[in-house]
Amino acid sequence: MEALGITTLFLVVFISCLVFSAVWKSRMKKEKLPPGPTPLPIIGNILQLKTNYLDQAIHKLSQKYGPVFTMYVGTERVVVLNGYDAVKEALIDRADEFSARGKLPLADKINKGKGIIFSNGERWKQLRRFALTTLRNFGMGKKSIEERIQDETQYVVEYLQNTKEKPFDPTFMLSCSTSNVICSIVFGKRYEYNDKRFLSIMASMNENFEVFSSPWGQLYNIFPSLMDFIPGPHHKVASNSNKNAEFVLEEAKEHRATLDPSSPRDYIDCFYIKMDQEEQNDASEFTIENLIFCVLDLFTAGTETTSTTLRYGLLILQKYPEIEAKVQEEIDQVIGGARKPCMADRGKMPYTDAVIHEIQRFISLVPLSVPHAVLKDTVFREYVIPKGTTIYPVLTSVLCDTKEFRNPTKFDPQHFLHEDGSFRKSDYFMPFSAGKRICAGEGLARMELFLFLTTILQNFKLKPLTDPKDIDISPQMSSIGSLPRSYQLCVVPR
């Protein structure tokens, strides 16, 4: 009897899946959605996705279903864009239609549609426009911010000198240094690398980035209602974010108490001035809540992305000491050892520029971009994508396109060099995404990557703790973010 019951249950499940599959395929055909793997009830296509290397799993599906296909993350419908042509057509050629922010439940739980990165509609337009204008007014892309970065690089040199050639983990040094650049714009000041409160904020940001990219973060984004009741590190995201919000609120209160509208010191001051100007507007987006989330967006994005790229870059250069040596040779020829590197040097240093571009290409820091969505029912190629559908533009598929990069899975600076050694630009270089949602701090990040890396290599030689050939430069995980494996190194003064 027991065996009969199990058989009956199996048949019921099997028949239910067949019926579901038939209904789903009929619906797909009727709605003219892009093709894709048949999802299972509730869990969608989770069995076909490796949560540790999501971009690789999606690439395999693309080989079967094409550059535009539909999959289900739990019950959430997602249209995937794979390859340069599809991503460019959507994000650049049809930027307005694909400019909405898609769903990311773990982020939505915290941000609730506030701030810059995860907002939509008029709120997003106003807050992003204000941020871009304010960042430019405080020097982004100008000589003044270059000088701030140069000043911060000297604190990095001092920190590295104090390691006395002993092993250290560069994570927090890089987080603090890159964060101080955005802090100078947002808060109007920098923090010491041994400031316990500042280090605590760096730790919570770093932990959140890791959780977002981990299987726990992926599971939350697939089953948010269920994961709210399951213990795990995904619950730390909310507590870490609350701690960071309290840090921002304290800074904001200090700014409010000392605000001089005729002489704004930083982004927070400018936001308060805008708040006061719109205090009679009940629909104003310039509220204290949006101030906190906008500052957190700028603070986090201006810290984690650049510091993780630098951390990954230092690991890669340890594996390839011959590349490090060629960069240092170029630094010696163009800059020498007596002065600080400056942005005017970059145009005379094609090999160094190529190495930095190749670091960004190779690591593909945000493999799927931050999810987009379509603003309306959208005819895309021969398909119809319903309004509000989440879009995954797979940036890894652009950065690793074999039509543009001959050895996409290998670290090779020649990808960005002509045969004569001059720098080679590429339309496929999209580490900051593209279109209306391109990273607002792209210019600042490019400046920081060049100035921090050249300053470190101008003053120090990297000394790995293991044989370079044994260094693993594959990502620890690659889903929302692509993270390097933990490591320590020594630096030796040159």
Automatic annotation (TrEMBL):
<keyword id="KW-0256">Endoplasmic reticulum</keyword>
<dbReference type="GO" id="GO:0016712">
    <property type="term" value="F:oxidoreductase activity, acting on paired donors, with incorporation or reduction of molecular oxygen, reduced flavin or flavoprotein as one donor, and incorporation of one atom of oxygen"/>
</dbReference>
<keyword id="KW-0479">Metal-binding</keyword>
<keyword id="KW-0492">Microsome</keyword>
<comment type="similarity">
    <text>Belongs to the cytochrome P450 family.</text>
</comment>
<dbReference type="InterPro" id="IPR050182">
    <property type="entry name" value="Cytochrome_P450_fam2"/>
</dbReference>
<keyword id="KW-0349">Heme</keyword>
<dbReference type="InterPro" id="IPR017972">
    <property type="entry name" value="Cyt_P450_CS"/>
</dbReference>
<keyword id="KW-0472">Membrane</keyword>
<keyword id="KW-0503">Monooxygenase</keyword>
<feature type="binding site" description="axial binding residue">
    <location>
        <position position="439"/>
    </location>
    <ligand>
        <name>heme</name>
    </ligand>
</feature>
<dbReference type="GO" id="GO:0005506">
    <property type="term" value="F:iron ion binding"/>
</dbReference>
<dbReference type="GO" id="GO:0006805">
    <property type="term" value="P:xenobiotic metabolic process"/>
</dbReference>
<dbReference type="GO" id="GO:0008392">
    <property type="term" value="F:arachidonate epoxygenase activity"/>
</dbReference>
<protein>
    <recommendedName>
        <fullName>unspecific monooxygenase</fullName>
        <ecNumber>1.14.14.1</ecNumber>
    </recommendedName>
</protein>
<keyword id="KW-0560">Oxidoreductase</keyword>
<dbReference type="InterPro" id="IPR002401">
    <property type="entry name" value="Cyt_P450_E_grp-I"/>
</dbReference>
<dbReference type="GO" id="GO:0005789">
    <property type="term" value="C:endoplasmic reticulum membrane"/>
</dbReference>
<dbReference type="GO" id="GO:0020037">
    <property type="term" value="F:heme binding"/>
</dbReference>
<keyword id="KW-0408">Iron</keyword>
<dbReference type="InterPro" id="IPR036396">
    <property type="entry name" value="Cyt_P450_sf"/>
</dbReference>
<dbReference type="Pfam" id="PF00067">
    <property type="entry name" value="p450"/>
</dbReference>
<dbReference type="InterPro" id="IPR001128">
    <property type="entry name" value="Cyt_P450"/>
</dbReference>
<dbReference type="GO" id="GO:0019373">
    <property type="term" value="P:epoxygenase P450 pathway"/>
</dbReference>
<dbReference type="GO" id="GO:0005737">
    <property type="term" value="C:cytoplasm"/>
</dbReference>
